[in-house]
Amino acid sequence: MTKIAIVGSGLIGRSWALVFARAGMDVAAWDPDEGTRERLDADVAAMLRDSDLAEPADVAARIAGVETLAEALAGADLVQESGPENAEIKRELFARMDAAAAPETILSSSSSALVPSVFCSGLSGAARCLVAHPVNPPHLVPVVELCPSTETAPEVMDRAEAIYRRAQQIPVRLTREIDGFVLNRLQAALLAEALRLVSEGVVDVQGLDDTVRHGLGRRWAFMGPLETIMLNAPNGATDYMVRYGGPMGRLANDSARGEAFSAKAAEVLTEAFPSLSSSAAIRDRQNWRDGELAALDAHLSKRRTKD
Amino acid sequence: MTKIAIVGSGLIGRSWALVFARAGMDVAAWDPDEGTRERLDADVAAMLRDSDLAEPADVAARIAGVETLAEALAGADLVQESGPENAEIKRELFARMDAAAAPETILSSSSSALVPSVFCSGLSGAARCLVAHPVNPPHLVPVVELCPSTETAPEVMDRAEAIYRRAQQIPVRLTREIDGFVLNRLQAALLAEALRLVSEGVVDVQGLDDTVRHGLGRRWAFMGPLETIMLNAPNGATDYMVRYGGPMGRLANDSARGEAFSAKAAEVLTEAFPSLSSSAAIRDRQNWRDGELAALDAHLSKRRTKD
Question: Do B188 and A303 lie within an 8 Å CB cutoff?
């Protein structure tokens, strides 16, 4: 039986607990904050109410809130650390976990902004540390980026990958540390150009979003951007580069840089989304988004049997 | 009754014919090539066999192949030009169409690479010319980018937008000419970074595609990238920029440029897709893609009633 420890049981940690528990794994969840620990059962029950799992009570029964870090780590095959995005806090937490966990326990961080060497370097167990960066919320978006430091052992990466795969996630292995990993690097490149185009008034915000939602995103939801261009190249990738490499390369040369993340862009966005002007309204729309993510996942899973 | 002329009835032109005809419009399709004209009925029948339209015979009956450009243009509200992506050919074709069509007929080009002034500038009817750039195939991907030249009349843009909307497409209006319009600018920015990451071996091709397919693309299929970041900003867009503008901006500053469209990238792609090494295999996979696009469109349409 695989045992998972969740360290930090806020929004992301709870979602991870659901991922592992619904795949039949035993989960022990701990948070340094007493209030968060006390709310765990109620928060898990709320997530389960919104899900359409066949046996929600069985899933809930596999998630145990525990009172100490040591209890969470005891016997764990993998720890999913999901604490604040702060180098100092993670460094201290990883030192504590490395000292307390059995040597074969994998220590994975949900960090989106910090590469693993930032908080694992110098630990005696640095070889068993990695980042496993999810998309929020992981129980509705399956990709998880696995990023090693130079000290992470390949066999640890293999074991981690196998565990995430058994949990029905889609692990993507990076070969080395890189800021932003893969997902946010791709997102930043597209967003910069998007923000520039709306800031300069070439297109309005709805038009920009429609271009992706009813255009690019229609393909990228079931095949990646690289397979997409392969299918536009009847004579192969070399032919694609000969035909489109020049013009696409010129567009990339001209695409926006970091300054597109500007105060002006923030103003344009604020004006374009009057319906998202309160945090209550944003929470409602997040719930809508999560419902759509679940429905899309169900659709795509059904189609995959027809591949 | 709205009447549409299709000028150039190859792959894109035929798909456009289906878009307009299934929305109840009358379509006259012409191609300069006799063989293409002769194949029209059979090609339309094949498209209809793959669709799940309720009344395919009625749709087919609204698409008439005609023998001359003049017949196609007669009485047309809008011409959808879908000829080769060649400035000389388009310039000549637009001059002929501008001379022959009634003054109120809108002349739209499916061009993906040429801005409208390239082939409309100097025509006496330049005010009624624009680009209406679809995604291939338009009957399965609804977005259409409407790009005016400085000479295009705003009321022509209004009328064109209304026609595409009645045809159930999603028109996106640009305010001015820009190379690549919006969609390919966004695609080029993301692709450059994607090609760089796989060329440098940070991640393999499947991992890159999985990151989008099972991550970014899951959201972008039903909401745009800008609404996506608004929902990650519980205190609004200004707060988003304060929190994430710096780190995302640094990723954008560091993202790949045009040189990523390289011979090396083509090699990596070729190796990664051994199953796409013949044009027959690519055609099969295009058919799979089109089936998935249709299924996804049906899913999203059904969900939209629940918005």
Answer: no
